[in-house]
Design a protein that fits this description.
heterodimer, A: about 350 residues, alpha/beta, D-Maltodextrin-Binding Protein, domain 2, five-stranded mixed β-sheet, three-stranded parallel β-sheet, 14 helices, 14 strands, about 15% strand, globular, B: about 450 residues, mainly alpha, two-stranded antiparallel sheet, 15 helices
Chain lengths: ~350, ~450
């Protein structure tokens, strides 16, 4: 008899939590602030600047959603989460959405009961080696020592890759990226492996970046995107279509520079009109104002502008668009139609 | 016969020799050197070896510290400036990151125009602790000690002034309940009432009452949420609260563990053994995750408060065991003497047992406190940005990515100041309380 009480209580708590989370939009509006889970610090994706304002590619998604929902891109309470606390923070309702370069996987979507609303960055695991090693392909890394962050999917991908190619390696476990940088530069390992975006950011900090090469092999798929709790489809729609609005805006040439002009008059492109709310009532269907997408795009710019501002070729990180180009340019960024 | 000098003795000196100064080799700096550093061949060799080691270390570290840049705005600019100033081979510290971010490392995200509040709170906390720590202070400062526990959180978190007033009122109510109930119900019922009344007041009435008062007479300062806390401010807030609360809780737990009352004893043993049996990180995860699940939805139980409770629990368990060691070290005669004098339990503890037991336990208590203060950096694991966590966030800025030693050096230096002062204070306290062998 006693045994059944505890699961019962847990179920009740879970139900209560679910019912509380059912109307996230109302909660956010009542609070006047969006609680957005983000990274405690990841170069290019989330970091506080000297004034304490969070900046970055992931952070920009939070700001866009806050602008779409509340009309104010600064109405965000950023909750820094670690790899260990991010999912419980979302599940327990501490945050309304999570944008923390989180890989969309089956088990996270299905088993942990989250809804991934899209992908804001297609990443993949790569290798970096010193040029002096004379290696041009990851398949030549037989017997190498590899610096690898423990407890991440990168560790498993690495084991898979070396097993498939039937070559051996010696892992050097490290805890954080900065530790990896130190170990790698000190020569404790021949190879450093993590997401390609992380490798680029790390390489950019070296005194002599040209002495290190990122190998061409990408050994895993890491679609990184924002996620919300299961069970509140209205809220998931808002986050999903805010992200889609940023991507579509780039496709249709809507930028933070020309958006006022495009909104002032009804343009000849009906898709742009529907996106910007000058035609149709898409905002109302989401429960938002008609100009929700205008506010979201004005928060920081369209997807391409955000990319260039935080991680693109002109930043020290210098990532190429690659997979993250628009589908019209051979990439994977493809927003469903706004109609 | 008597007044004639004896001529048997060849010579008798009739004036004392003036004292000669000690040989130059045994006084002054030279003597000190001989006594302390070169007293034997082995010691001389060790001295030279140590000097060589120190010189080697300084030669390696000093150029790095001195050949530095204070004005750059990014790591690459730092490197360029250092190369320009000290030659292409020079490598130096980029202290510019500290210049740009020191305020964040100390105050976190606290609004910069309100920095005076944590500074004032820190000053009040120091002032409140002073008369407790040092006997030379005027007793009137004790009023500040009494007010500090209410003033400091109010300054840090802001909000209505009536909430700390309402909380303070809880203690007054408890005292009143004790005075009212004791004449009718005896000491035990009085103690129970003194514990129950304030707890009920705090849980159910203090919040609405302060809300009402605020509605009638709005008095308050701008509220700052716990999310804005960070850096050393967070460490000190958690550390100082946990340290000051864990001493009384630790004493109570230690006494409870020695109690002859079965229930009290089992509860205390259970708490101590459970808390000591799990790592602090586990407790922090409980604070972050489980409490969130178990609380009713929409309760906003402050994360910093949750962490403070957990760290206090952790420190109390350790302090309790240190004090139990002090209690066990007292000869039985002391307990018996207290009984023989006819003192009741609390008087015996207060006048005879505790002063001696605490004195024995000082080094252990202080090292527990230092450990707790340093353990506050563990909160970075649950996403709170203490100095160590913040150093990671600063490193995530594109401009400062790749900077390690400068940030850690700054953090280590500040931690050293706090921990070293604590250990010095404990030595001072031991000297002051050394009464038996004077």
């Amino acid at each position: 008899m006693k045994k059944s009480i505890i699961p019962g209580a847990l179920t009740m708590v879970a139900c209560a939590a679910a019912s509380a989370g059912a109307a996230t939009l109302d909660d956010v509006k009542a609070r006047g602030k969006l609680n957005c889970g983000t990274n405690t610090g990841l170069v290019g994706f989330a970091a506080p600047d000297a004034n304490g304002d969070w900046q970055g590619f992931d952070v920009a998604v939070c700001r866009a959603v806050a602008a779409a929902v509340l009309g104010d891109s600064s109405a965000v309470e950023f909750v820094p989460t670690t790899g260990k606390t991010r999912f419980t923070a979302l599940a327990s309702g501490e945050i309304d959405m999570l944008v923390r370069n989180t890989t969309w996987t089956f088990s996270r979507d299905v088993d942990l009961k989250f809804t991934f609303v899209g992908v804001n960055y297609y990443d993949g695991q790569g290798f970096m080696v010193p040029k002096a090693l004379g290696v041009s392909s990851a398949k030549e890394l037989d017997g190498a020592t590899v610096c690898i962050q423990t407890g991440t999917t990168t560790e498993l991908n690495l084991a898979d890759f070396f097993r498939v190619n039937n070559i051996s390696y010696e892992p050097v476990p490290i805890e954080t990226n900065e530790q990896a940088q130190q170990q790698y530069l000190a020569g404790a390992c021949d190879v450093y492996t993590t997401d390609a975006s992380g490798l680029a950011a790390t390489r950019a900090t070296f005194e002599d970046p040209s002495a290190h090469v990122v190998l061409p092999e990408i050994i895993s798929k890491e679609p990184l995107g924002p996620l919300v709790r299961h069970g509140d489809d209205e809220w998931a729609d808002i986050v999903r279509w805010t992200l889609n609005a940023l991507i579509a805006a780039e496709e249709y040439g809507v930028t933070s520079a020309n958006i006022d002009e495009l909104t002032a008059t009804v343009t000849t492109n009906p898709e742009v009109n529907r996106l910007l709310g000058t035609e149709g009532a898409l905002g109302g269907m989401l429960g938002l104002s008609p100009d929700w997408a205008v506010k979201a795009i004005k928060a920081g710019g369209n997807y391409g502008e955000l990319f260039e501002k935080y991680i693109g070729q002109n930043t020290p990180i210098g990532l190429a668009r690659g997979l993250n180009a628009q589908w019209t340019d051979g990439g994977l960024m493809y927003a469903p139609p706004f109609r | 016969m008597s007044d004639a000098p004896s001529h048997d003795t060849a010579f008798v000196r009739d004036a004392m020799l003036p004292p000669a100064p000690a040989p130059a080799s045994s006084v002054g700096p030279l003597g000190w050197l001989r006594r302390n550093l070169f007293s034997s061949w082995l010691n001389a060799a060790l001295t030279l070896l140590s000097l060589a080691l120190v010189a080697w270390l300084l030669a390696a570290v000093l150029p790095w510290i001195v050949h530095s840049s204070w004005t750059a705005s990014s790591l690459s600019e730092c490197r360029a400036q250092i190369k320009e100033a000290y030659g292409p081979e020079a490598s130096g510290a980029c202290w510019a990151v500290i210049r740009e971010r020191w305020a964040q490392l100390i105050f976190g995200f606290y609004p910069s125009e309100l920095y005076w509040r944590p500074i004032l709170a820190f000053g009040i906390a120091l002032g409140g602790m002073a008369p407790v720590l040092f006997p030379g202070f005027p007793r009137k400062v004790l009023y500040l000690s009494g007010a500090a526990p209410f003033l400091v959180p109010w300054l840090l978190w802001g909000g209505t002034v009536w909430l700390p007033v309402a909380v303070a009122l809880g203690f007054v109510l408890g005292y009143a309940a004790f005075r009212l109930v004791t004449p009718f119900g005896g000491a035990i019922l009085g103690t129970i009432a003194a514990a129950l009344v304030p707890v009920m007041w705090w849980f159910w009435l203090a919040g609405p009452a302060s809300g009402q008062l605020q509605a009638v007479l709005p008095l308050g300062i701008e509220p700052v949420s716990s999310r804005s806390f960070g850096g050393f401010m967070l460490s000190i807030t958690i550390g100082v609260t946990a340290i000051t609360l864990s001493l009384p809780f630790g004493i109570l737990l230690a006494l409870g563990r020695q109690s002859r009352m079965l229930i009290v004893k089992s509860i205390c043993v259970g708490v101590i053994e459970f808390v000591r049996g799990v790592p602090l990180i586990t407790l922090l995860f409980v604070a972050w995750l489980l409490l969130n699940y178990f609380m009713p939805p929409d309760t906003n139980f402050d994360i910093v408060l949750r962490v403070i409770i957990m760290v206090t629990l952790f420190a109390s368990a350790y302090v309790a065991e240190v004090i139990r060691g002090g209690l066990a070290a007292l000869p039985r005669g002391q307990y018996e003497a207290a009984d023989a004098l006819g003192l009741d339990y609390w008087k015996a503890q207060r006048l005879i047992i505790m002063p001696q037991a605490l004195k024995i336990s000082i080094p252990g208590i202080v090292s527990t406190f230092i450990g707790v203060f340093k353990d506050t950096t563990l909160v970075s694991i649950i996403g709170l940005l203490d100095p160590v966590g913040f150093s990671n966030s600063i490193r995530a800025d594109v401009n400062w990515n790749g900077i390690v030693w400068e940030l850690y050096g700054f953090i280590a230096a500040l931690f050293f100041v706090f921990c070293f002062s604590m250990s010095r204070y404990s030595m001072y306290l031991e000297r002051r309380l050394r009464t038996e062998h004077r």
